[in-house]
Amino acid sequence: MLIRSHVRRGGGGGIVDKMIPGYKEKIWAALPKGYKEYTVKSENNKFESAIAKHKQWQNFFLSYKAIEKGFAPSSQFRKPAVDWRRQMERGTMFFGRWYEGPYGTDYRPGNTHDRLANIQAPFTEAEWEERKKHRSFDLLYFGYGLMALFLAYRVTSEWPVVWCDDREALEEKKD
Questions:
Q1: How many CB atoms lie within 10 A of CB 78?
Q2: What are the average pLDDT values for consecutive 10-residue runs of the chain, which has 175 residues?
Q3: What is the pTM of this model?
Q4: Which residues pair with 111 in a beta bridge?
Q5: C-alpha to C-alpha distance for 22 and 40, rounded to whole angstroms
Q6: What is the DSSP string of 147-169?
Q7: What is the rounded CA–CA span in Å between residue 63 and residue 78?
Q8: Cα distance between residue 23 and residue 119, in whole Å
Q9: Rg of the Cα atoms in the chain
C-alpha cells in the first residue's frame, strides 16, 4: 500500500482539517491505485532529478578545480634569494665567499651585521654627490614652477567684480 507523507507546518493544518480531521487521508484512500503510483513516482523523480543535476554540476566543477590546481606557482621554480640587481640597488650586495659577511662577519651567533640598520644613507657621501649630478626631475623645482604659473595667471587675468547697488534702498528708508 502506498502512503504519501505530507509536510506538517505550524498550526496543524487549515480550517478544513480542524472541522474534518483526516480528510486528506480519506481522499487519498479513495483515489485509484494508478494515480497514487503516478503521483508518488513524479514527486520522487522531481527530488532525484535535482540530485542528478547537482551531481552533474559537481563533476563539472570538480574537473575545473583539478585544472585550477595546475595554475598555482610551483615551488620547484621558486627562487628563495634576492637577485643581485635588487641587492645592488638596496646597497646590500656583498662580494665574497658565501660564508663571509660584510664588515668581517661570518654569520655565527654574535658575529653578524644587520644590513638594513643603515636605511637612511645607503650610499656614501661621494656616491650621493655623483647621483645628484644625474637628476633629471626634481619635485621641488616642479612645485616652484607650478606656483609661478599660478601667480602669473592671477596677476595677468581679470577677475569679475560684483557691486551691490543698494543706494535706492537707502533713499527709500530716508523718505
A1: 8
A2: 60 77 90 94 93 92 89 79 83 72 76 72 77 76 92 84 72 73
A3: 0.30
A4: 108
A5: 19
A6: HHHHHHHHHHS---------HHH
A7: 27
A8: 87
A9: 44
